[in-house]
Amino acid sequence: MKTIISEISDSPDRPVITVDWRDWRSPLRYPGGKQKDLPIFTPYFRSAKEYREPFLGGGSVLLHAIGSQVAQEFWANDANPLLMDFWRQVQTDAIALARLVRSLRDDYDGEQHKCDQWVAFRDRYQQKLADLPGDRLHNAARFFILNRSTASGLTESGGMTAAAYCGRFTESSIQRLENLQDRLAGVRLTLGDYRELIHAPGEDVFIFLDPPYFSAEQSRLYGRSGDLHKGFNHQQLADELRDCPHDWLMTIDDCDAIQDLYSNQWADLRPWTKPYSMTNTQGRRSKAGRELLIAKRGLLANA
Question: What H or E segment, with its residue span, contains residue 121?
């Protein structure tokens, strides 16, 4: 977002708050991350008692929602256990995590492309990470380092590159991690099925969804070798949202298959274009794509 500091009040009954967004940026690089897209869809957020996010991912939207004080309670979930280890450690003690990450960073001053020197360094460093203890703190550190050091933040689905290690795994990225100390205080973080957040009872609930994209399934961008992306059931998601008792807003890729799943009798659809670029597990980069905002009927029309 270009605006670093802003004043927020989206209704007459909410006080104006001043937010320095530099303190609320996610430290993760994530396939399909929404940091740059926040101005597109956050204007459709509404104040609620509880905010839920069934597909937490890189956390940019959750952090924006907390910083904007759109709700009193927050519940975020993801199906990736290593990702949730990271976010739970951030919630517990982001400073301790940053301290460990700094201690694990080794200097590399060779050429920033695939060469013998880099391959030898990478193999030694990956073994060092593999030998770390398996507790949450070390799992979170390993996840963060690989996230910053792999192409487009693919973490488990991509390999470390010299350019990413030198250009993205930086002191400023670790500082961004430190900035999250206490930011997730009181947030409910769960590892489980997204459907629970859609149907769990609640008073005045608003749900934001950013599921795996339909047309990008072959890219295998999420989880270990893409296991959290392959075979995602979009028909099931549409069925669950049709019966959802709460207000919800989703961003997804715009294709005929998705449009066929969401009837204008129960959902609002609004197209937008995102010039995103992601690298899949074969090293190919995606093109700019058409996207959709889909929401519970009336939510977009009344915004």
Answer: helix 116-130
Sequence-separated (6 or more) residues with CB below 8 Å from residue 184: 66, 87, 90, 91
Of the candidates 95, 29, 99, the residue with the CA atom closest to the CA atom of residue 60: 29
Q: How many CB atoms lie within 10 A of CB 152?
A: 24
- For residue 105, count other CB atoms closer than 10 A to its CB: 16
CA distance 180 to 164: 22
Give the span between the Cα atoms of 54 and 65, in whole angstroms. Answer: 14
Given pLDDT bands bounded at 50, 70 and 90, which one contains residue 153? low
* Percent of the chain predicted with pLDDT > 70: 81
Going 215 to 218 to 286 to 85, the CA torsion angle's sign is: positive
Q: Alpha helices, DSSP H only, in 168-233?
A: 171-178, 194-199
Residues 40, 33: Cα–Cα separation, whole Å: 13
